[in-house]
Amino acid sequence: MLRKLLIGTALGSGLAFAAHAQDVKEVEMLHWWTSGGEAAALNVLKEDLAKQGFAWKDVPVAGGGGDAAMTALKAMVAAGNYPTASQMLGYTVLDYAAAGVMGDLTETAVKEGWDKSVPAALQKFSVYDGKWVAAPVNVHSVNWLWINKAVMDKIGGTEPKTFDEFIALLDKAKAAGVIPLALGGQNWQEATMFDSVVLSTGGPEFYKKAFNDLDEEQLKSDTMKKSFDNLAKLVTYVDPNFSGRDWNLATAMVIKGDALVQVMGDWAKGEFNAAKKTPGTDFLCYRFPGTDGSVVYNSDMFGMFDVPEDRKAAQVALATATLSKSFQSAFNVVKGSVPARTDVPDTDFDACGKKGMADLKAANEGGTLFGSLAQGYGAPPAVANAYKDVVSKFVHGQIKTSDEAVTQLVNAIEDAK
Amino acid sequence: MTTVTTQIKLTPEHSARPGVSMRSRLQDALPKIVLAPSFAITVVFVYGFILWTVYLSFTNSKTFPSYALTGPRAYQRLWRWTFESDPPSSWYTSIINMGIFGFLYIFICLALGLFLAILLDQKIRGEGMLRPIYLYPMALSFIVTGVAWKWFLDPGLGLEQTLHQWGWTSFHFDWIKNKDFVIYTVVIAGVWQASGFIMAMFLAGLRGIDGEIMKAAQIDGATTFQLYRRIVIPLLRPIFLSAFIVLAHLAIKSYDLVVALTSGGPGGSAWLPSNFMYEYTFKRNEMAVGSASAVIMLMTITAIIVPYLYSELRERPR
């Protein structure tokens, strides 16, 4: 009996060895795009790969969101069991690359010409030490206003071009009895809005020095103080019940016409799309006043791990398909973001998408494409979260003046560096 | 082996003994053998990881553990944050909240649980139906409790909105949106969930009290208040100990309640140390600081629980 069992095991492992000699036609993928639109967008990629004969295997993540996925990824990597690729954000890619667990896609990148088509600012996160370690999937930008057109017409508003015009517009909405500004009082939403406020108040150069280079002179400058004052002005236009609200509920307030405007990244467009609203007729997308010409971005990436040789072919196929023009277009039309390469035709995109793509291209060429600090593309997570703490404490009144806020910001960032 | 066989040959009259002692020795050892795996698992996964956490807190681990000891920098930072009260640092908020939440949660649960148990113990009709009603919240997870109370306490959705619709428009209750009061909403939800369970514990204790003593006291002319004050509550002392330990550990680990109810509160004002630990270890990639905060939590618990257990358990035999 025992002998039979042993022989069986030996045969089994022998077979397993034989199978290993060939390529594994399977992509093992960790991601948290499970909700309707996102899952549908990802399906495009699955089908592309299926055509080439690669099976798709999701790594199950308990609990949904990105945090749970990152915890799961940490455990997988610690156990030496790397997935083919994982959805990753910003500095996470670089952290894993520094730990030496990422693969090398440079060969594919050169062949496909990613160096030229992917914006340089994005390559800061997808290239580590001269090697391509991740394939960017999309570019989101956060300096947008989302406006309900019916409300806008009712109050007779026009596109605000400066911060003061924006305040005047909010005043009009207030006078008309609409909630002027829909905000969710969670720290990342407040900080995401503050990214735009800083860019608007200080201009592109200031934003870069303060929030990408973390230059202390700029962080404690009067411009930063003025930015906090401007943020305080904006917060006077939110409804009293804003604290703790989820971002999509704030978007829903704009969709329903309870509120005039939301300052949010372009993922908000997905909510408008889901509610069957058309840009231009039902809602308007403007750049945050005073930030036209600059793009504050964040981006989803597929980090590529250092998988065994027999899984490399599948990885290359995944990376190639991810950055193919057809997938970039199909995926981003659904997701609300814009393609991560600047040479994709914009024919399938709606008005907001077309504007987003043109802006990205211009910002890339003009050097005004900056990582969002609130979204973790300006500085490592420790710094980004310290920043969110300060902004949120300022919005909710633990930090009472802009002077104090600036001091706290400098200290918190210094502490977290 | 050889010595055993020679022994048997040399002393045949004792031949039965080794067999018996083997079996009895096995019987003696059996509980230990059965317990060994779970003991080993506990040693490795509880105490082993406690030591590992302590070790990590002295490194400069960020996203991943690093093993080079770099001194107590994480503790220095936490120590500094302990005194940053204006504007409050996240750590300061966490420990102050732990104090408020821990004290109110344990105290109110004990008081309310005892009170309800005494009321239910008055041989009232329908007790069998009332008991599960009070006990039921314990069957819910913290997440469900948190979400339900979040909706109930939300001024735009729940209690305030409803009362406004009924015409009481001056009613104002926005604690869950208020940075200074949000921690008390966590207490409310926590007490709602646990007090029924504590009531059941006290009820069991009350039922265990000898009726003779009560009768004797009544014959001696004790009033109801004196009866409870002098006889019943002192007799419930072991229940107080068990209830305290159950509540204390629930209070310290109630991470999920804070997240579900307040998602951290306005500006992070509802954080407890467990939120701080998770946030720093897993979201901010400051594993050393997270570990250090975990170690401090453990030491605080030890400092409270161990003397209490020691005094309680030592006095029992007397």
TrEMBL record, chain A:
<protein>
    <recommendedName>
        <fullName>Probable sugar-binding periplasmic protein</fullName>
    </recommendedName>
</protein>
<comment type="similarity">
    <text>Belongs to the bacterial solute-binding protein 1 family.</text>
</comment>
<keyword id="KW-0762">Sugar transport</keyword>
<dbReference type="InterPro" id="IPR050490">
    <property type="entry name" value="Bact_solute-bd_prot1"/>
</dbReference>
<dbReference type="GO" id="GO:0042597">
    <property type="term" value="C:periplasmic space"/>
</dbReference>
<keyword id="KW-0574">Periplasm</keyword>
<dbReference type="InterPro" id="IPR006059">
    <property type="entry name" value="SBP"/>
</dbReference>
<keyword id="KW-0813">Transport</keyword>
<keyword id="KW-0732">Signal</keyword>
<comment type="function">
    <text>Part of a binding-protein-dependent transport system for a sugar.</text>
</comment>
<feature type="signal peptide">
    <location>
        <begin position="1"/>
        <end position="21"/>
    </location>
</feature>
<dbReference type="Pfam" id="PF01547">
    <property type="entry name" value="SBP_bac_1"/>
</dbReference>
From TrEMBL, chain B:
<dbReference type="GO" id="GO:0005886">
    <property type="term" value="C:plasma membrane"/>
</dbReference>
<dbReference type="InterPro" id="IPR035906">
    <property type="entry name" value="MetI-like_sf"/>
</dbReference>
<keyword id="KW-0812">Transmembrane</keyword>
<protein>
    <submittedName>
        <fullName>ABC transporter permease</fullName>
    </submittedName>
</protein>
<keyword id="KW-1003">Cell membrane</keyword>
<dbReference type="GO" id="GO:0055085">
    <property type="term" value="P:transmembrane transport"/>
</dbReference>
<feature type="transmembrane region" description="Helical">
    <location>
        <begin position="287"/>
        <end position="310"/>
    </location>
</feature>
<feature type="transmembrane region" description="Helical">
    <location>
        <begin position="133"/>
        <end position="152"/>
    </location>
</feature>
<keyword id="KW-1133">Transmembrane helix</keyword>
<feature type="transmembrane region" description="Helical">
    <location>
        <begin position="181"/>
        <end position="206"/>
    </location>
</feature>
<feature type="transmembrane region" description="Helical">
    <location>
        <begin position="95"/>
        <end position="121"/>
    </location>
</feature>
<feature type="transmembrane region" description="Helical">
    <location>
        <begin position="227"/>
        <end position="252"/>
    </location>
</feature>
<feature type="domain" description="ABC transmembrane type-1">
    <location>
        <begin position="95"/>
        <end position="310"/>
    </location>
</feature>
<feature type="transmembrane region" description="Helical">
    <location>
        <begin position="33"/>
        <end position="55"/>
    </location>
</feature>
<comment type="similarity">
    <text>Belongs to the binding-protein-dependent transport system permease family.</text>
</comment>
<dbReference type="InterPro" id="IPR000515">
    <property type="entry name" value="MetI-like"/>
</dbReference>
<dbReference type="Pfam" id="PF00528">
    <property type="entry name" value="BPD_transp_1"/>
</dbReference>
<keyword id="KW-0813">Transport</keyword>
<dbReference type="InterPro" id="IPR051393">
    <property type="entry name" value="ABC_transporter_permease"/>
</dbReference>
<keyword id="KW-0472">Membrane</keyword>
